[in-house]
Amino acid sequence: MPRPAAVLRTPESPGLRDHLISITRRLITERQTAQLTVRAIAREAGVADGVLYNYFADKEDLLAHALLADIEAAERTLPPPPSPGTGTIEASLAGHLRHILDLHERVMPSFAALLGQPKALARFQSLPRSVKGDNLRQHMSAHLTAEQRLGRLAPDMDADAAATLLVGACYDRVLPMLFRPWSQEPLESPERFTESLVRTLLNGVRGDTA
């Protein structure tokens, strides 16, 4: 029988909302997708079924916040990407791309585990920026704009377009992981990929006679 919610509210325990997110995140990362029901989550958390609705609109809302918590936990394990103006411009952009690839390598299995929960993925996508922050393209665009203001990128560069090209190339690289989420194989030659991508962007593709 589930324990009363009050049992969890002790000085030594996390807040109940955070506890529910933590339990759900663990079920996702352990790929126990068959257990992602309100009853199973509540039982695993040691609370009554209805307690979830005191903190979340529905199961999909809880799953979305658990996925967000997984991303935030992954980000904390990674070194931050380079700040504008540090190192060479090539190293700066390559560092941002490597950060994107490393982050996706860590969180893609959780997204794959929720492919059978499309409403939860849609709810995650609809979380406001005040909750989940800017997306990766927005982060990259802001970094490119900052580098542009420092004079390290062309003044007529379209930062949003360049960010779309760079982040889109990363997505093309990592999306196949959705179909092999439990593989332990790392992404192949990420350094060569990022360096080649940055070099192509900075050098352009127009020929001398074009």
TrEMBL record:
Q: Which InterPro entries match?
A: Homeodomain-like_sf (IPR009057), HTH-type_TetR-like_transc_reg (IPR050109), HTH_TetR (IPR001647), Tet_transcr_reg_TetR-rel_C_sf (IPR036271)
Q: Write one Gene Ontology MF term.
A: transcription cis-regulatory region binding
Please report the stretch or stretches of sequence annotated as the HTH tetR-type domain.
Answer: 14-74
Keywords, A to Z, come to: DNA-binding, Transcription, Transcription regulation
Query: One matching Pfam family, short form?
Result: TetR_N
Residues annotated as DNA-binding are 37-56
Q: Which residues form the signal peptide?
A: none
Protein name per UniProt: TetR/AcrR family transcriptional regulator
Q: Which organism is it from?
A: Spongiactinospora rosea
